[in-house]
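dude i think i finally got it to work??
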Amino acid sequence: MKKMKLLCIVIAIITVIVVIFWLIFGDKIKVLYTSLNSFRDENLAYTFQHTPEIQPTKKISKGEEIFQFKKEENITLAEGFTFQGTFYTTEDFIEDTKTSALLVIQDDCIKYEKYFLGGDENTLFSSNSMGKSFVSALMGIAVSEGYIESIEDPIGKYIPEFVGTELENIPIRACLKMASGIDFDEDTDMSSFSINTLMGKSAMKVISKYGLQEEPYTYRRYLSINTEILGEVITNATGYSLAEYMEEKLWKKIGTAHDAYWTLSNGKELAMGGLSVSLRDYARFARLYLNRGNYNGEQILTEDWVRDSFDIKEEYSKPGANEDAYNVIGYGYQWWIPEGTEEEFMAIGVYGQWIYVNPTKHIIIVKTSADPDFMEKGYELKHVEFFRAIAEAF
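look at this
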């Protein structure tokens, strides 16, 4: 009888502990489970077209004026392209890379637009790391408005959690260029960072625990936490949330056709890649850069900021820097710059999200995907050749 009574007491204590734990962490555990389940291979296409329904988000309202692209019947795309001695047909490549949508625009005219996995022109596609390029734009605006005195300012000037740490004096520009020197590994440390923040820890407090691996501007190492830092600098300097700042200073000003949404982590926008945007609105954003920051006569981004965003003169910024797999393409201010002579630039997101711009040919290509094989060797360079083949056909 005593053993039975003791067992009942133990069970009761365990039950109370479980209930308390669930009351405190239940919502966070559900969000974590939902996030992990959303990224199963079979769920990717649905996840990337329904993120605002799956995750907590903040709305970014469009403006009253819509910039309308002209529209023609779909052209016939290039038959294919050659990469490293192998010919790939366009049709097979689109299918093999699990393309969900493809848009080709030249001179503000839609030449090709097709949706493959259930979406349409009203669907909001997840940006993943393409969102980093939007954060770069917001940084440029914050500098032009005087909220941030200089991108050579130390990040500790705007983020109190970094004061007194090894990270305090890293220049903002070093984070823009992915050359901050923070001792963080994108492949091995990102999971624990994401879990810590999903469970309620402040992203800046988590990042502040990392030291320096090398001095800023020594190497380029792609670290998504650099963009989280940029987002925090913008938020603290302007007093706006990222979504609010983007809505007022960018989204309502460039003729977007749809509201966008920004995924929240711990109640704050996920700067490293949490936007959901329609295919044509991605192109409208790219068009702003194609036009050197100008929309209908209003200079939303300064010409200097646009020019500097694509500057890869430093050795660590150039294609092939450090002989690192992440660095086969050059890198500016959160934009990818392939090797070539046509001033191309790109935004890239995991699982195959792309904005490609060729200013020489006045072409914008947007490609969204749900490709679990996005880490395949040569994946980025193969896509560059695919986009170039489409552009060359014009």
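The CA atoms of residues 354 and 383 lie 9 Å apart.
im so relieved honestly
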